[in-house]
Amino acid sequence: MAGPAFRAAAVRVRTPATSANLGPGFDALGLSLGLYDDVVVRVAESGLHIDIAGEGADTLPRDESHLLVRALRTTFDLLGGQPRGLEVVCANRIPHGRGMGSSSAAICAGIVAARAVTIGGADRLDDAAMLELATEIEGHPDNVAACLLGGFTLAWMEAGVARAIRMDPADSIVPVVFVPSRPVLTETARGLLPRSVPHVDAAANAGRAALLVEALTRRPELLLPATEDRLHQDYRSPAMPESVALVNRLRADGVPAVISGAGPTVLALVENGAADKVARLAGEGWAANRLALDAGGTSVLPLA
Question: Cβ(208)–Cβ(227) under 8 Å?
Fold first, then answer.
């Protein structure tokens, strides 16, 4: 394969926040949310220059260790070679360390931007290959599938290859997120999970995950039973007791609430008319936000 040529113009990529698991759909189900990071990437004559505004501006690295840059570099290698230099500008809005897919957004932004700035990039790296690459970098496909495809996604591994299908969630569903002030590392949350679970709990989750597909796409009135989980949320309680307590309190009031991803954000999936009322239920210590559902996933947008 001949080395790639690169576009002189910058490209702008927008990536949505995501929520994985959605209760019973552990490492499989994901939902794309209307909260976005924007990244502008331009091939330069030399070096690497990174500007960051918003989330992580004071803490993220501005060198090759930045996750987005690592995704760019990995993708350029697959496309045939590295550009001489890069300029990267990040406008981050997705909270970090809160279970809303900030790492998946960075990975997907890097992959899509590298493909877009490479002439003929889409011919060398198709959409299925992007999902496979994003999964390889992230380690599991649930968040990256929702981030790339938008909507409501079901992801799985087949013979070591990531697969995903996209579905349209019901229009009446409104995500409400309750974001706490303190993050929890995904590694910490995963480390609390047991190596095995009772068969009765696994069976219950399988049924609820199947029901959740119907509830999210066609029967929102079934969301409360469909979001019941026995595989991961209670086990993670020591790392996020306030989050699990909020989930239990909301569910006791009839609100379909779950831990978003590895937490500690709490996600409620409610009907449109109840969203504002539900957003007021968390109390102090939580930033409650009513979001839209994202339908488009990661996209290349005009610079203007």
Answer: yes
Q: Which tokens sit at 252? A: 């006791």
Contact between 5 and 63 (Cβ < 8 Å): no
Q: What are phi and psi of 43, to 5 degrees?
A: -75, 130
Q: What is the rounded CA–CA span in Å between residue 54 and residue 4?
A: 33
CA pair distance 57, 91, nearest whole angstrom = 9
Compute mean pLDDT per 10 residues along the chain, 304 residues long, and list them: 85 98 96 98 97 96 97 97 97 96 98 98 96 97 98 97 98 96 82 92 96 98 97 93 95 97 96 90 91 98 87
Instruction: Give the pTM.
Output: 0.95
Gap between the Cα atoms of 174 and 277, Å rounded:
12
Does residue 56 contact residue 98 with C-beta atoms inside 8 Å? Answer: no
pLDDT at 181: 87
Could you give the CA distance from residue 250 to residue 260 in angstroms, rounded to a whole number?
Answer: 14
User: Residue 183 in contact with residue 96, Cβ under 8 Å?
Assistant: yes
For residue 2, the model assigns a pLDDT of: 61
Is the peptide bond preceding residue 241 cis, with omega within 30 degrees of 0? no
Query: Which are the contacts of 27, defined by CB distance < 8 A and separation ≥ 6?
Result: 20, 21, 140, 142
Confidence (pLDDT) at 282: 85
